Amino acid sequence: MNRRRRYAVTAVCLTAVVAAAVTTDLVVEHKVRGRVAETAACRLGATKGVRVDLDDTLAGLRALTGTVGAVHVSAEGVRREGTEMDVDAHLRDVSTGGATSGGTATATVAYDALDRSAGVRGGADGLRTGTDGTRLTLTGTAGTTGLPVTVATTLSTTSHSLTITPASVLVLGREVPVSQLSALPGAGGLAAKLEPRTIRIRELPRGTALVGAHAEGAGLVLDFTVAPTGARQAARTASEASACVSGKGRAES
User: Fold this and answer.
1) What is the pTM of this model?
2) Strand 174-177 relative to strand 161-171: parallel, antiparallel, unpaired?
3) Could you say which DSSP state residue 127 is in?
4) Rounded Cα–Cα distance for residues 73 and 81 (Å)
5) pLDDT, mean of residues 11-16
6) What string of DSSP letters covers 187-213?
7) In this model, does residue 39 exceed pLDDT 90?
8) Contact status, residue 69 vs residue 83, Cβ threshold 8 Å
């Protein structure tokens, strides 16, 4: 066999091997993504769909060795304590057994959904949540005067709660600290409404903690950290997830 033909045969063989590897990767990756999406939909109770992306190159082939790598999960229509939100999570070093070195997640609550939540009660006191581009705001009217006002707030969190604290009120082009509002004529009724409001967030997956919150155009964004999960805890979570998917009951968060 001459040198040119030998090189051609070698090139064909390499191409076939690479093609087979990519095909295997795509098949395995599809199965892994489907399994993660099914489990996430069941565990989160998502009503509008779940999307899973395996961020690492050739993640499907890596799954054959027990490691998936970085996983990105997004879920829409997740309900927690009567409030609907969209969840976006990034997990690192995920194994096929469910272990992970941790990650981060966000939950975005649209402002109309936030208004309906028990902790905010926007519809009850006439103040609606929104944003001025930087801060979470409450808009409504100033007591008996009926003048439109915008209330700027500050946000603080614990691992399982969010507190919205009114800080200042913009009325007739003047920004007044909430602490001075009751001194303004006709503003006493509004001042009484502007107490700090704490929203308890109890139904969190194990190892997940709230670490911050900020306002964006789409809604209030809650920031979470996800703790590393070892093999033993992953096995228990996998058992609960299997029961959820099989219809034996949704696992408790």
Assistant:
1) 0.76
2) antiparallel
3) -
4) 21
5) 46
6) -HHHHHH---EEEE-----TTEEEEEE
7) no
8) no
Alpha carbon distance 240, 153 (integer Å): 40
Question: Using the 8-state DSSP alphabet, how is residue 230 labeled?
Answer: -
In the chain, % helix, strand, coil (3-state, to 5) comes to 35, 40, 25
Mean pLDDT for the stretch of residues 194-202: 85
- Mark 95-130 as b/e (b = at least 16 C-beta within 10 Å): bbbbbbeebebbbbbbbebbbbbebbebeeeebbbb
Question: Which is nearest to 194 in space by CA: 205, 178, 208, 171?
Answer: 178
Per the listing, tokens 């976006």 go with 88
Structure tokens at 124: 């009850």
Give the tens place of pLDDT for each residue, 86-102: 999 888 887 766 678 88
* Contacts of residue 64, Cβ cutoff 8 Å, sequence gap at least 6: 24, 28
Tokens of 31: 């199965």
Amino acid type, 246: S
In angstroms, the CA 212 to CA 222 distance is 6
* Order of strands across the sheet that contains 208-216: 50-54, 67-80, 83-95, 103-109, 219-226, 208-216
Q: Alpha carbon of 240 to those of 29, 59, 150, 234, 248: distances in Å?
A: 23, 25, 46, 10, 9
